[in-house]
Amino acid sequence: MIDVLTTAWNWIAEPLQYGFLRQAIWVSAFVGLVCAVLSCYVTLKGWSLMGDAVSHAVVPGVVISYALGIPFAVGAFAFGFGATVAIGYIKSKTRLKEDAVIGVVFTGFFAFGLVLVTKIPSNIDLFHILFGNVLGISRQDIIQTLIAGTLTLAVILLRRKDLLLFCFDPNHAKAIGLNTQMMYYTLLSVLALTIVTALQTAGIIMVVAMLVTPGATAYLLTDRFDRMLMISVAASVSACVLGTYFSYHFDVSTGGSIVVLLTVFFVLAMVFAPKYGLFAQRFRQRVYKKQLDEMSSPP
Amino acid sequence: MTMTASSLDITVDDISVTYSNAKLALYNASCMVMPGTITALVGPNGSGKSTLFKSIMGFLQPSQGKIRVGGFPVQKVQKRQLMAYVPQSDEVDWNFPVSVFEVVMMGRYGYMNIFRTPRQKDRRIVMESLERVGLVDFRNHQIGELSGGQKKRAFLARALAQEGKVILLDEPFTGVDVKTEKRIIDLLLQLKQEGHTILVSTHDLASVSTFCDRTILLNQTILASGTTQEVFTEDNLTMAFGGLPISSLRQMTGQMTGQSSHIVNRQTSQNAEVEA
Ligand SMILES: Nc1ncnc2c1ncn2[C@@H]1O[C@H](COP(=O)(O)OP(=O)(O)O)[C@@H](O)[C@H]1O
Ligand SMILES: [Mg+2]
Questions:
Q1: Which residues have CB under 8 Å from B133's CB, separation 6+?
Q2: ipTM summary value
Q3: In this structure, how many other beta carbons lie within 10 angstroms of the beta carbon of residue B144?
């Protein structure tokens, strides 16, 4: 018993003696927090694909920022947000459905980024952009992550009710005289900011998981938005911290382990959720069928 | 201002709406909703009732035409919380994690500070609105847990909480039992007494003449408008409901209900067979 405890303690404590790991743990926890908050809105608004689009569209921005020597967050935000504006514009001017427009725009941006990264001489590691590198994150990048994340949290905290109304019933928002156009762009810009926040930790391929899975998991577990927010944050932050541990102990990709954990949480919720889980549904069906049988069978 | 004191009218002047798939949903529609009346907007499915509602509410931009409420542009009227909209059921995400109370509270957002912190007055009005539609006991339910009629009443309560002078209800009687329909009608009559202007879309011809002062007949454009008696002529209804004489329409609906009950019967007998 004592043995197990000491082993567990060592498992937790040992990595903490390294500065870069302590740093990786709290940075990814912070990123997990920001993504979790936004993921509730993304899930409810049905913007998962939009999140994927923005994350891919930031690549040229990152490359150009490095080439020009400006903070990566600036370029990434500009291109990520720019892509969403392009998507909105093309959708309003053509008869295409949104998913087609999103598909065209984000692959276009991404391809442009690939071309740039292979042509512009820089010390950017494409692998790090794609898959994240929280263990080797620089002080500069941490500062940018913190600024982008804090900005996101502040905007959402201040406008949370309006944003929720906008997700639920944009027509009503308009009917009471609110500026829905501005809410649309506010939500898009915090989406882009969140992706900038998560870029260094998760990488652009994985960031969509951090933007969708925590919210989707929480959505299966509750009918109250406030609780959904808390569950989402709890799942996301613990996956980020644990994932970073796993990546150290088993020497595997950090972004990868975080997302694997998030997915495990999701599957657990999907199966065991008290009301919307597979078991609960099965159980309800059985009870219902039994009641029907009892009603229709002769006394 | 005079705008808030008296009842407001709605003027629709030569509206045309084309959707992005090049579908012309409304053309050259002009009509007027008299202040302080209950007006029915009647037309078959796909005739553009919701489209006209959304144009009036400013949710979509008509390609031509002008809309005024009490003589003012819609946006201005909305900023003063004078227009409420009760959506058609299929336009609401019933799985959204909000409670009935929270939905009704959304009717008050326009009166609150930027953080939307409810004050005592907001809570009181929300509770009163819930009481008027008889949903106080359901206030903590998630909206999807309500029955069809309760869902309509929840959104009606939101419109009440908003305290608008003009209320637009898109198909409030679809999928609602007779008792709830009567309850909603009673409430609308009360609201009329209080000076509201009410526009209701429906394709339930039978109930219209019982409570609507005026009727607007629509099929892609305005076919007729006036008092319900004036409008409900055989010819007009034939025109609106697509070339079929109204008597055959009545027959058809009769047949349809007969058929559906037949199907139900067959299903139960099948079940009985399985049991046996
Ligand atoms: N968002 C949309 N995009 C394209 N066509 C639409 C859209 N909404 C409605 N329509 C079409 O416009 C016509 C009028 O629809 P609608 O106003 O919903 O009619 P109603 O409410 O009377 O049933 C229908 O033919 C419908 O198919
Ligand atoms: Mg409709």
A1: B153, B154, B156, B157, B160, B183, B187
A2: 0.90
A3: 14
Closest-CA distance of chain A to residue B238, Å: 34
Q: Which residues of A touch B162 (CB under 8 A)?
A: 175-176
Across A187-193, average pLDDT = 95
Q: Identify whether the C-beta of residue A114 lies closer than 8 Å to the C-beta of residue A124.
A: no
Both tokens of residue A288? 């219902």
Residue A296 has pLDDT above 70, yes or no: yes
Domain boundaries, chain A: 19-296
Asked if residue B250 is part of any domain, the answer here is yes
* Same domain, yes or no: B258 and B169: yes
The number of distinct structural domains making up chain B is 2
Look at A200-204, B42-46, B156-160, B269-273 and tell me which has the smallest mean pLDDT.
Answer: B269-273
* Segment A192-242, tens digit of pLDDT: 999 999 988 889 988 999 999 999 999 999 999 999 999 999 999 999 999
Q: Which of A162, A167, A175 sits opposite B83 (nearest CB)?
A: A175
Range of the domain at B157: 93-163
- Does the CB of A177 have a partner CB in chain B at under 8 Å? yes
Chain A's closest residue to B161, CA to CA, is A176
Q: B24 - beta bridge partners? A: B18
Flag whether B87 is in a domain: no
Q: What is the CATH number of domain A19-296?
A: 1.10.3470.10
The pTM of this model reads: 0.89
Do B54 and B105 belong together in one domain?
no
- A266, A248 Cβ separation under 8 angstroms: no
Residue B270 has pLDDT above 60, yes or no: no
Cross-chain Cβ contact B78/A177 below 8 Å: yes
CA distance A277 to A286: 14
Q: What are phi and psi of B221, to 5 degrees?
A: -145, 175
Mean per-residue pLDDT of chain B? 86
